[in-house]
Amino acid sequence: MKAYVLTVALFALAFSFASASDPDPLQDFCVALKDYSEDSKSAIFVNGKFCKDPKLVKPEDFFFEGLNIPGNTDNKVGSNVTTMNVDTLPGLNTLGISLVRIDFAPYGENPPHTHPRGTEILVVLEGTLFVGFVTSNPENRLFTKTLNKGDVFVFPIGLIHFQLNVGKTDALAISGLSSQNPGVITIADAVFGSNPPINPDVLTKAFQLDKKVVEELQKKFGGDN
């Protein structure tokens, strides 16, 4: 009985590690279907995308163009993220990877955010970035580094992180992520711009702010829409 319990415990432990990232593919590829039939629309949701018939797969299913085109950074934060994930490159389905291009205007930033399903590795191609991440409770340790062209930095899965262009010129970075769909949660947008809005009393207590400040932040981030 003890041996049985130990075996079950070891399998459970192994499964928890195995399910900590995207599942391994069970075939050479599983190109995601872009257009679902009526049958697939009513089917049970799957953890990923439905697979295209391998006989109908084309080279274009594994191809993405346009990553050389700068993103529009004319916005409030001065940055733009061009995403290449399973939604834009169907051949990534079940392969557990994705890629993004991040453009920065001078002093622009990619605000504090998390990727709930992926670790990120970033390489600077142009400019100088101040980057960092914060560990989980209770330590909340901040790790930061100033990166120059050719430098690489890793942001562990699920942790809040950011990138700030500290130069007077545009900056460019490319990031790889360990999921076909890592997701992104921008902290300010999620907290102050949720739909419907979070009760201001909750945020007033959580952030130790005056209620009027919270309500103003919710208006700024669209939480009143």
Rg, alpha carbons: 21 Å
- How far is it from the N-terminal to the C-terminal residue, by CA? 58 Å
Taken as a percent bin, the fraction of beta residues is: 25-35%
Tell me about the biggest sheet?
A: 5 strands, antiparallel
The overall strand count is: 10
Looking at how many chains there are and whether they match, the oligomeric state comes to single chain
Shape: globular
What is the percent of helical residues? 10-25%
Mean pLDDT: 87
SSE series? HHEEEEEEEEEEHHH
Please work out how many helical segments DSSP would assign.
5
From the helix content, strand content and strand pairing, which structural class follows?
A: alpha+beta
Low-confidence blocks of residues: 4-20
**Spatial order of strands in the largest sheet:** 1-2-9-4-7
What does this entry show, briefly?
By secondary structure, the chain is α+β, with helices and mostly antiparallel strands. Helices cover 20% and strands 25% of the residues.
